[in-house]
Amino acid sequence: PMTHPKIPGIKQSRAQWSCSILDFSRRGPHLKSIRTQMRMLLDRSEDRSHLQELKNLSLFRELSFNELRVVDELLHERVYQKDEIVSDVGDAGLGLFFVVSGRVKAVPPPELVKATVVEFGAGEFFGEMALFEDAPRMAQIVALEETRCVVLFRTDFFALLQKEKNVAVKILFEYARTMTQRARRILVGEVQRPGS
């Protein structure tokens, strides 16, 4: 093992780190080690940024970063272009969609006279009935701009319920809270806008 001279006033480990950065005459294992450490730091930073993005989604706001990592393994990401149909009336409802960025609108079929067009923005979710029932979609969902979504499929959610009950319960609590707010809006005749 290589020894490094102590630099006065600096702990040995910091002196070793400094010497391995500054010692360009020995480009062997030290430089590789630094690259590896820097890559690990960048990966952690990107991981934390990605997890914070998930934490901004309404159903995941109460989850810890470790719990978010568990959920992240189950999510499927897709980007939709402006005016692209995300799902259509009659499509199989296989999962719950979360809007990470952008906006979508839900357009009910003409036969649902009292239904209004509803918009969903970043942090919100739609397609919630598909999480609990195997029924076709009741509205057409269209991207209003470039929109990034993640999807939690019903089968993955039920697997989460079996393996990570505490995580699933937190998600279900936020789900119930959001559905209660939406029901209240419908009762008082409010139109839902993104973020409201």
Q: What would your notes on this structure say?
A:
The chain is an alpha+beta fold and 196 residues long. 41% of the residues lie in helices and 19% in strands. The chain has five helices and eight strands; from the N terminus they run H-H-H-E-E-E-E-E-E-E-E-H-H. It has helices at 12-22, 29-55, 65-72, 154-163, 165-188, and strands spanning 76-80, 85-87, 95-101, 103-107, 118-121, 125-126, 140-143, 147-153. The strands form two sheets. A four-stranded antiparallel β-sheet has the order 1-8-3-6. It has a four-stranded antiparallel β-sheet with strand order 2-7-4-5, with no helix packed on it. The N and C termini lie far apart (61 Å).
Provide tags for this entry.
5 helices; 196 residues; alpha+beta; 4-stranded antiparallel beta sheet; 8 strands; single chain
The SSE string, one letter per element, is: HHHEEEEEEEEHH
Which structural class do the helices and strands define?
alpha+beta
Number of helices: 5
Radius of gyration from CA coordinates: 24 Å
Strand ordering within the main sheet? 1-8-3-6
Shape: globular
Q: What is the helix content?
A: 40-55%
Q: What is the distance, rounded to the nearest whole angstrom, between the alpha carbons of the first and last residues? A: 61 Å
